[in-house]
Specification:
This protein is about 45% helix and about 15% strand. It is of the alpha/beta class and about 200 residues long. The chain has a 6-stranded parallel β-sheet with strand order 3-2-4-5-1-6, with helices on both faces.
């Protein structure tokens, strides 16, 4: 890498010109289907970051939590206490599946969450709807992946963004998504240092 100031300036000029040329053709807008998956940390965190961006722009939005239930959540408390007027927040799950240990009940809750999600997505006032941990409900077949894919493909309003989080995203969902990010775990203190989940980091 060059350290010569003039050479650096010329290189940056070339990069900017190429970037400006590329961006001149990027003029379209549409509501995106966005999937955050993988075994690494940050899937829900990224989704909530996008919700906060919407709030920052004054866009109405909504969150449906499929799995996490009543466990503590800093983002849920913040959104419900301070931004309830612009962000509808629905906790529809009853906790992780290994906690509930009741497939029939988990299925009922997931299907109720999906009905609420469809209602919120159909409401064109919502610029973005976050379906937190829906991939887990799909992974255990609490929901029919074909129903979810068909709804997103056929009924989602053209300018509504839908964000779906959770590990093990189904191939059918990845196929129809506009944006897919896979979080990869490299190191995690839970496994390597016996550090428990901590407020402000995990919840």
């Amino acid at each position: 890498m060059t350290t010569d100031p003039k050479a650096h300036t010329e290189k940056m000029k070339r990069i900017k010109a190429a970037r400006d040329k590329l961006m001149a053709h990027k003029t379209g807008e549409k509501g995106l289907i966005i999937v955050h998956t993988g075994n690494g940390k940050g899937k829900s965190s990224s989704g909530f970051g996008m919700i906060l961006r919407c709030i920052g722009h004054g866009f109405p939005c909504a969150v449906v939590q499929f799995i996490k239930g009543s466990m503590p959540s800093g983002e849920r408390d913040l959104l419900k206490q301070r931004f309830a007027d612009i962000c509808a927040f629905h906790v529809m799950g009853e906790g992780f599946t290994w906690e509930t240990q009741d497939r029939e009940r988990d299925t009922e809750m997931a299907q109720a969450a999906w009905e609420k999600a469809k209602e919120l997505i159909r409401d064109e006032r919502n610029r973005m709807v976050l379906l937190d941990e829906i991939n887990i409900a799909l992974r255990y077949d609490y929901l029919d992946i074909n129903d979810v894919v068909a709804f997103l493909a056929e009924e989602k309003p053209p300018m509504t963004h839908v964000v779906l989080t959770g590990r093990s995203a189904k191939p059918e969902l990845i196929e129809i998504a506009d944006l897919v990010s896979e979080m990869k775990e490299v190191k995690h203190p839970f496994r390597e240092q016996n550090i428990k989940a901590q407020a402000g980091v995990e919840f």
